[in-house]
TrEMBL record:
<dbReference type="Pfam" id="PF04413">
    <property type="entry name" value="Glycos_transf_N"/>
</dbReference>
<feature type="active site" description="Proton acceptor">
    <location>
        <position position="71"/>
    </location>
</feature>
<feature type="site" description="Transition state stabilizer">
    <location>
        <position position="141"/>
    </location>
</feature>
<comment type="similarity">
    <text>Belongs to the glycosyltransferase group 1 family.</text>
</comment>
<dbReference type="GO" id="GO:0009245">
    <property type="term" value="P:lipid A biosynthetic process"/>
</dbReference>
<feature type="site" description="Transition state stabilizer">
    <location>
        <position position="217"/>
    </location>
</feature>
<dbReference type="GO" id="GO:0043842">
    <property type="term" value="F:Kdo transferase activity"/>
</dbReference>
<keyword id="KW-0472">Membrane</keyword>
<dbReference type="InterPro" id="IPR039901">
    <property type="entry name" value="Kdotransferase"/>
</dbReference>
<keyword id="KW-1003">Cell membrane</keyword>
<dbReference type="InterPro" id="IPR007507">
    <property type="entry name" value="Glycos_transf_N"/>
</dbReference>
<keyword id="KW-0808">Transferase</keyword>
<protein>
    <recommendedName>
        <fullName>3-deoxy-D-manno-octulosonic acid transferase</fullName>
        <ecNumber>2.4.99.12</ecNumber>
    </recommendedName>
</protein>
<feature type="domain" description="3-deoxy-D-manno-octulosonic-acid transferase N-terminal">
    <location>
        <begin position="37"/>
        <end position="220"/>
    </location>
</feature>
<dbReference type="GO" id="GO:0005886">
    <property type="term" value="C:plasma membrane"/>
</dbReference>
<comment type="function">
    <text>Involved in lipopolysaccharide (LPS) biosynthesis. Catalyzes the transfer of 3-deoxy-D-manno-octulosonate (Kdo) residue(s) from CMP-Kdo to lipid IV(A), the tetraacyldisaccharide-1,4'-bisphosphate precursor of lipid A.</text>
</comment>
<dbReference type="InterPro" id="IPR038107">
    <property type="entry name" value="Glycos_transf_N_sf"/>
</dbReference>
């Protein structure tokens, strides 16, 4: 039954290959990186790639898959602890998104290679594994694919899931497709979960949970230079700064509606004036969209509401006077969190699961989160318990809560201190995970 199920799934992914190519072409129109190295998506590699077959035990190849930006940042923390434990290791780093690949380029050392993860067909995954034959495969957080897991089992490559999480929605989906998902999870060599709740959900779908090691994203150390610059600009700002952090599509429109609803008008036709007045009132708003292809869209949205906009990419001596500051750069979230007195957590005001709030806490920036934080449920709950964040039912309430905190300096200072204490209390997951990978590598291969 399992073989037949995998055969059906493999047939479906092969038939969907033309659709994937068409989708990549469409995405490449907005993000050119999706049109580059397309053959890698199908397990085909040109002669320009160096051989990654290790010449010595100390030079073994470690493959880490970090699908997008958040997982790549987690991989960075893991590599910082893993490389000293495995001197001479070579890294094969794979991704699924353009933002992940762009961020991952900075993690490479001489001899490392970066690729797209192959599409989950038997042929593409087999060619990938046979071409590189890593000593171990480390999937970050959630990425478990049936054909890829089967190819690794066939080749004797131990495949592990690190910093693993599984929300209730994903567990329900895995249970509905148990005939396909359970063999994939059960075929993993080890799973190291973020929380006990994640561990319970993972076990219920057949995953071999070896330990609960915490969320290694708590080990993030914000770049000191970014923090210093953000704090200097915050001190020079004319008003307290409120940040809409890593906002997703639809949330900026909700924010604009909230500005209007929080300032009711007595005359018709004054919506734009109301929004502009609110934005340019007691708070300085800073918007940082999650995806770079949306920077221009968000600027147009704000200007259509009658606001002036100053983009980070055009700042020279610092933020320019404007109704709204737009953070249109990548890799500077520590600067933005340090610049802000309070942050609204993007992805939590639409049913998208929320963005990672840990970096905000590490920068001492209190967060206001909406109702949807299922992607980071445990971290969100811990932040609430620690007083490092607060939850509100909608965007209008979030705007009011942000103003109430940012405009009360003593309350804001206490909340910032609780954020730093919260982040410090949960560190250590990256080293624990690196040690677990090193132990896994010492186990005899099951071939």
């Amino acid at each position: 039954m399992q073989r037949f199920a995998l055969w059906l799934y493999a047939l479906a992914t092969r038939l969907a290959t033309p659709l994937l190519r068409a989708r990549l072409r469409r995405r490449a129109q907005a993000e050119p990186a999706y049109g580059q190295h397309v053959d890698e998506r199908f397990g085909r590699y040109g002669g320009a790639l160096p051989s990654l077959q290790p010449q010595a035990e100390s030079a073994r190849l470690v493959w880490i898959h970090a699908v997008s930006l958040g997982e790549t940042r987690a991989a960075e923390l893991l590599l910082k602890e893993l490389r000293p434990l495995l001197p001479g290791m070579r890294l094969l780093l794979t991704h699924g998104t353009a933002t992940g690949r762009a961020a991952g380029a900075s993690l490479l050392q001489p001899g490392d290679v970066q690729l797209w993860l192959p599409w989950d067909t038997p042929g593409a995954t087999r060619r990938f594994v046979q071409r590189f034959r890593p000593a171990i495969g480390v999937l970050m957080e959630t990425e478990v694919w049936p054909c890829l897991a089967a190819a690794c089992r066939h080749a004797g490559v131990p495949l592990v899931l690190a910093n693993a999480r599984l929300n209730e929605k994903s567990r329900s989906g895995a249970r509905r497709l148990a005939w396909l998902a359970r063999p994939a999870y059960a075929g993993l060599a080890a799973v190291w979960a973020q929380t006990e709740a994640d561990a319970e959900r993972l076990r219920s779908v057949g995953a071999p949970v070896a330990a609960v090691l915490g969320n290694l994203k708590f080990d993030v150390v914000p770049p000191p230079a970014q923090q210093a610059q953000g704090r200097a600009w915050r001190s020079a700002a004319a008003r307290p700064v409120a940040l809409l952090a890593s906002s997703r599509e639809g949330e900026e429109a909700l924010w604009l509606q909230a500005l209007q609803s929080n300032r009711p008008q007595t005359q018709a036709g004054q919506a734009q004036a109301a929004i502009k007045t609110e934005a340019n009132g007691n708070l300085q708003w800073l918007l940082v969209p999650r995806h770079p292809q949306r920077f221009d869209e968000v600027e147009r949205l704000c200007r259509a509401a009658g606001m002036t906009v100053s983009r980070r990419s055009r700042w020279t001596a610092g933020p320019e006077a404007a109704d709204v500051w737009l953070g249109d750069s990548m890799g500077e979230m520590a600067l933005y969190y340090s610049l802000a007195h309070v942050a609204l957590l993007g992805g939590s005001f639409e049913p998208l699961g929320g963005q990672n709030l840990i970096e905000a806490a590490a920068c001492g920036c209190p967060v206001v989160m909406g109702p949807h934080t299922f992607n980071f449920a445990e971290a969100a709950e811990l932040a609430l318990q620690a007083g490092a964040g607060q939850r509100v039912p909608d965007m209008a309430a979030a705007v009011r809560a942000a103003a109430a905190l940012a405009l009360r300096a003593p309350d804001q200072a206490r909340a910032a201190g609780r954020c730093l204490a919260f982040a410090e209390a949960h560190r250590g997951g990256a080293l624990a995970t690196a040690l677990a990978i090193a132990r896994q590598l010492r186990q005899p291969a099951d071939r």
